[in-house]
Amino acid sequence: MDENKENESAETTEQKLPFKENLYDRMPLTLKQWDIIIIVLAIAIVVFFVVGALKGNGVL
Amino acid sequence: MPNKKIDSKYVTNFLLNNAIIILMVAAAIGVGIMRPQFFSADSFRNLMANTSVRFIIALGVSGCLITKGTDLSAGRAVGLAACVAATFLQRGDYSGKVYPNIGELPILLVFLGVVVVAMLFGMWNGLIVSYLNVPPFITTLGTQTIIYGVCLVFTGAQPIGGLRADYTTISSGNLELLGIKIPYLAFIALALGLIMWFVYSSTPHGKYMYAIGGNENAAEVSGVNTKLTKIIIYVTAGFLYGTAGFLLGAKSGGTSVNMGFGWELEAIAGCTIGGVSTNGGIGRVSGILIGVMVFELLKIAMQFMGVETSYTYIVQGLVIIMAVALDIRKYVAKK
After folding, report:
1. What is the ipTM score, two decimals?
2. Which residues contact residue B158 at a Cβ distance below 8 angstroms, ignoring those fewer than 6 apart?
3. Cβ–Cβ of A55/B311 closer than 8 Å?
4. Is B226 within 8 Å of B209 (Cβ atoms)?
5. Long-range contacts of B310-315 (CB under 8 A, 24+ apart)
6. Across the interface, do A55 and B16 touch by the CB < 8 Å criterion?
7. Which of B45, B14, B17, B29 is nearest to B273 (CA)?
8. Residues in B lying within 8 Å of A, measured between beta carbons
């Protein structure tokens, strides 16, 4: 009886967490979420570039 | 109506997949408008010279990245190569000559010695990664520290100067083509780029490399000698770092133990920006050249705009993260 319970629990775990060998397959985000991350990073790059330039030229 | 939807999706994908290149080119145009001397011949020559050395290093790192590895010892290997080259190519009459009893050696002999040293460290990396199965990150991290130690011992932690004119001319000399002065460095980098392009695209070794990066187990089962291929990749990388170090020593006019420190990260960044996937199996020489050039353009643009040094590191770091995010995005989009 205990053995059956153990086997059931192992199968349930396997269904819940299928192993994916490829690192990128394990990424939990969708395409849209990645698009948002990329846009945010692009904005951050522009912001830090501009702020750095203003600070470097003594404006800020 | 459906065509319009497809077109806008195509445009969105194009813009996002090439976001870094578009952003950098836009930044360069913006800087050029605000600082017209950014588009001068001197600036272009500076860009080519800086890109050339970094491109050679990136070519070395790319093989490791394509096979899902990395090489964190690249920068220190370049530094050691520069120090060794500079030590044996000092002027005979220089008062601070490291080995005053050794006369002026032929440049080719010193070059061969330098690349052999660098290739030995490459072989060291390759053997540990292939036969001991130590992850490349750890292996090359250890090698990085070892090479730094060797360089400290070799140079006595002293800077090396008084280099021969025939050595420094290799990097400072130019060839005039159609009125434009192109550094010799650019031609050397181009030649190496063409050789590596041929190796990657048209040789069995190149195909094995991509196969290992795609799926190492499948490659092994298919008969690819994965251990030998990886060793060759790291030894080739060593050759390229040795060459880059030799040229860097000539370009700088003097060397020290800190030369090349951190350059592996720039090389990895350039490769990633240029489309080399950190997930392995993808990468082209043309992409690597574009990636390195774009990263150098960004650095020069920030210099011209007088961006504070601290902020230049933040911007470069964000660009690297964005490059990896784009790589993952391309993979998710394909699925």
Report:
1. 0.80
2. B256
3. yes
4. no
5. B310/A52, B311/A48, B311/A49, B311/A51, B311/A52, B311/A53, B311/A55, B311/A56, B312/A52, B314/A48, B314/A52, B315/A45, B315/A48, B315/A49, B315/A52
6. no
7. B17
8. 16, 19, 23, 27, 279, 302, 305-308, 310-312, 314-315, 318-319, 321-322, 325-326, 328-329, 331-333
Contact status, residue B265 vs residue B312, Cβ threshold 8 Å: no
Q: Look-up: residue for tokens 């970094």?
A: B54
Which residue in B has a C-alpha nearest to residue A49's C-alpha? Answer: B315
Report whether B39 contacts B273 (CB < 8 A): no
Residue B183: beta bridge partners?
B174
The residue among B294, B297, B322, B324 with the most chain A CBs within 10 A of its CB, best to mutate, is B322
Place of tokens 């979420």: A33
Residue numbers in A near B319 (CB within 8 A): 45
Mean pLDDT in order along chain B per 10 residues (335 residues): 63 81 86 87 89 97 96 97 96 89 92 98 97 96 97 94 93 85 93 97 96 94 96 98 97 93 92 90 94 92 92 93 88 80
Summarised one tens digit per residue, pLDDT across range A14-53 is 555 555 666 666 667 888 899 999 999 999 999 999 999 9
Q: How far apart are CA B307 and CA A41, in angstroms?
A: 18
Q: Could A52 and B319 be called an inter-chain contact, meaning their C-beta atoms sit closer than 8 Å?
A: no
CB contact under 8 A, B322 and A45: yes
Distance from the first to the final alpha carbon of chain B: 26
| Closest residue on chain A to B298 (Cα) | A49
